[in-house]
């Protein structure tokens, strides 16, 4: 509920009023204390002033301030009362001291007068001494200046002397001494100004003269680099040639050892001369004095870095100009100068790195070399892509490999150059194969198919011994007729040249074991190019027995030559011969050899066919046996004996055996074919007996070849007549039906075709009573042989 004031409440508030007044008084006292405390502590009284004016009672503040000042006045009075006696006493003390001071003053005046009287002569003497000392000092300074001037003049004179004599370093040292030691000490301002003007001029003049000599050296060093590069590469070539000579001696020793000539001892001695150590090829003979003098002078002048940069930029420009390949001159003619210039450049730079004292860093030279390698590789790539002659590629490759050998000695990395050479290995061999293919074609087309005549021993050595074609170590008598034609040594020379060029290209190219590569391309040359050319020659140009026999003889000799080719490639490649002999492969000219023998056999068969036409005059119904055989046999045997007599002079026994065996087999087939042919309707036993005589003559001919062949080969010749021999034996057998026995047939008639046996057996008819009985006596007993033959025919027909 709401509060309602009452009378009682009013009374109560009035009772509180005195307490409120008391509270006001205590508040003023508190403000007075706070103000006094702030003033005593030196604090800001601004807040009290603002509070007084804000409350509208500034009088109270003034009252408090007056009260504070009155309280402090009383304190001051108390302090003054406390110190008054001390002050009075101090004033009394000062008055007593005044008299003592006056007496001291008078004493000091007397002492001063006495001192001045005594010190006046001393002061006069001192002034004279000081003046004399100043004069002495000035004289000493004058003497020192004179001495400095004398030394300065001596240095100037010495500097002029060194300048006139071209001793620029000594002149610069004199100038530096003048500038550092005497320039500030020069008493004459005129001389000092003159020196300050002339010293820079002298330095500039020295630098200009040194740079002139250095620029002349830059021009001359290009010619020197080219000559130096040619000399270094030439010495690398000489060293390589000596290595090749040592290898040749080593191969000769190995060959003698292989032939078991133990009484021969070979000593491979190296020559003492060491051209690699020649100073001129190492860059030691190059005059670098102008370069080093210019570098030293610039070091003395304090512009070492500027000269380094100048030298590097100019040498870099020279190297860049060396990269230019003239389009007016064939690269084959200019490649040696091109590579020799670059080689000489880096030989000189190698020496500058080693002896130049930091003129050019190894890293900078390596950067230049990387640039040079990149440029040389691009030039080689471009030039190789244009070349179409293997010999040109080989010449440039040899020179580049010599460049690599030369610069590798100085620590330069030449692998990228060798990689370019390896990259064009296939192209080189393709061009080389193409050249050899043309040479082989020309050599074969020039062959007359005549045995080669050698009148002198050097011809024998050049055409036989150099290719190891001899069959005996005994030198023949001259004139000597070789079993081969001129084609053989001509082709051998072409193949040997191919091997040597291939090995030369592969050698010193960074690949150590390159025999397999040489062997691969040698196989291609022999098995594809030479073999194909020989086959083409045989198929197109050989149409007579004599040329065919000569070609077959050539192929037999080429088989020995091919063994030599692979041994020669291995020797040049540094491969032991035993490894080549262990991995020997088949004859690479087997197609040409087979074609030659087939052609010879075919031509001989044609000749035989001409003689076999005489079989048309054989009396197949003869009543008597010809004891000497038929007429064709005698003429054919005479021809065969003549053929063998000529063939044994040039054909090896194995080839002669294969040819004769093929011919005898053909004769056997012709005999069987004659009996099988339609021209022979009937024949008698007497005719077969005559054929038996003919076959014996051929068998005797085969036996007569035993001195030329082995006994086994002679038996194989006789086996070529097996079909005709077995057929005659069957027809003359008393029990022909034994042909049906598998064991007997396999042992005695294994070359007979039962179909041919049926046809030929049916033609055998003989009216003789002694043999088969007469057809007129039908009731008589049948001949057992005839009965056996009829049974054989019947059984064979049933089998068919």
Structure description:
- This protein is mainly alpha-helical and 800 residues long.
- Among the domains are: 120-187; 231-254 and 285-412, no CATH class; 426-596, Exocyst complex subunit Sec15 C-terminal domain, N-terminal subdomain (Tetracycline Repressor, domain 2, Orthogonal Bundle), CATH 1.10.357; 618-767 and 783-798, Tetracycline Repressor, domain 2, CATH 1.10.357.
- The chain has 26 helices and two strands.
- It has a two-stranded antiparallel sheet with strand order 1-2.
Tell me the β content: under 5%
Give the CA-based shape: elongated
Spatial arrangement of strands, main beta sheet: 1-2
What is the helix fraction of residues, given as a range? over 70%
What is the CATH level 1 assignment of the domain at 426-596?
Answer: Mainly Alpha
Mean pLDDT across all amino acids? 80
The count of strands amounts to 2
Round the Cα radius of gyration to an integer and report it: 66 Å
Structural class: mainly alpha
- The termini sit apart by 156 Å
Q: Helical element count?
A: 26
Q: In CATH terms, what is the architecture of the domain at 426-596? A: Orthogonal Bundle
Q: Describe the sheet with the most strands.
A: 2 strands, antiparallel
What key phrases describe this protein's structure?
Tetracycline Repressor, domain 2; 800 residues; mainly alpha; disordered N terminus; 0% strand; two-stranded antiparallel ribbon
